[in-house]
Amino acid sequence: MMRLKVLYKNHRLVVPVNDTTQSVKQLIFDLEQRFIDHVCSDFQKQHDPKKHVKIHQLMTGPMLHSEHHQHPNHNNNINGFLFNLNDKVEDVLRDGDIIKALDEQSYIDYQLDTFCDRKRSWLHLSRDLIHSKDSVFGEIGYHRKNKLYCVFGTPHHKQFHIFSLDELKNAPHGHEIGIERDFLDTWYVCAKFEKPSVQELKEDKKMVCEISLHIKTDANDEKIEIHQVSVHEKNGHLLKGITRSF
Predict the structure, then answer these.
(1) Between the CA atoms of 133, 77, 161 and 153, what dihedral angle is there, to the nearest 10 degrees?
(2) Residues 112, 113, 119: CA angle, nearest 5 degrees
(3) Element (H, E) at 204
(4) pLDDT > 50? residue 76
(5) Helix or strand run (H / E) with residue 242
(6) Do residues 216 and 187 touch, judged by C-beta distance below 8 A?
(7) Residues linked to residue 57 through DSSP beta bridges, in sequence order
(8) Over 50: is that where the pLDDT of 65 sits?
(9) CA distances from 171 to 4, 159, 210, 215, 238 (A)
């Protein structure tokens, strides 16, 4: 039997693994059940426990101090290594290993830091909220797996979406994603997809779609700030087109 030391948010558990031939994907499911029992109240267990505990990936845990000195070329910017979900537990883990179970926000941060070219984002809108010290933002840019990423929300809670070239081509006209509202319904940020018109396709056959960011920070303000970017394709690669604001 294998014992793993598992970190999830601020919680820590020692978890026995009886079947080490199971996949990492199955291990994630088992860990979710363990943390639901550990974290959730009886009421939460009966009413949508996955709302409170959802593991998106596993990552190797922090290195021990002694191990750090054995690897002089260790990059401090690397927080850990992800697991292939189809691998067997016994092939990638050892008894006593420390692993981090990534919740949604941690997994989004990993995606943004690793794959998203945020310094050259195609669109970025950020505004301070009127009745709060917080801010709300929306961002669209290039994902290094030749995809488009969209991220919305506040610094504390984000929604994240990625789209391949085919998914962008097939996105229905007027499709809307990423709406984030607070419980008073005083602000929102979202993105809307638009198919190119016949005239636009005549002028540029490589245009895939147009995406616009919409942001509003106060329920009493009728003004909605809108910025739009066109998405193009060349030899199968996604490219940024023209940007404009309304």
Answers:
(1) 0
(2) 85
(3) none
(4) no
(5) strand 237-245
(6) yes
(7) 102
(8) no
(9) 42, 18, 11, 21, 15
- Which residue from 155, 142, 160, 140 is spatially nearest to 56, judged by alpha carbons? 160
Distances (CA, A) of 122 to 71, 175, 196, 239, 240: 38, 19, 18, 10, 7
Mean pLDDT across the chain: 87
| pTM given for the model | 0.80
Q: Which structure tokens are listed for 212?
A: 């616009």
Structure tokens at 67: 């191990």
Q: Please report, in angstroms and rounded to a whole number, the separation of the first and last CA atoms in the chain.
A: 62
Residue 174: closest CA among 198, 195, 148: 195
Summarize pLDDT for 143-189 with one digit per residue, the tens.
Answer: 999 999 999 988 888 999 999 999 999 999 889 997 756 555 567 78
Report strand pairing: 11-17 vs 2-8: antiparallel
Q: Is the pLDDT of residue 107 over 80?
A: yes
| Cβ count within 10 A of residue 234 | 8
Q: Which residues neighbour 96 within 8 Å (Cβ) at sequence distance 6 or greater?
A: 3, 4, 5
Task: Please check whether residue 139 is in contact with residue 153, taking contact to mean a CB–CB distance below 8 angstroms.
Answer: no
DSSP string across 31-82 = HHHHHHHHH--HHHHHS-GGGT----EEEE-PPPHHHHHT-TT--TT----B
CA–CA distance, 215 with 228 (Å, rounded to integer): 12
Kindly list the distances between the CA atom of residue 203 and the CA atoms of 80, 179, 196, 198, 235, in Å, as whole numbers in the listed order: 47, 32, 10, 9, 18
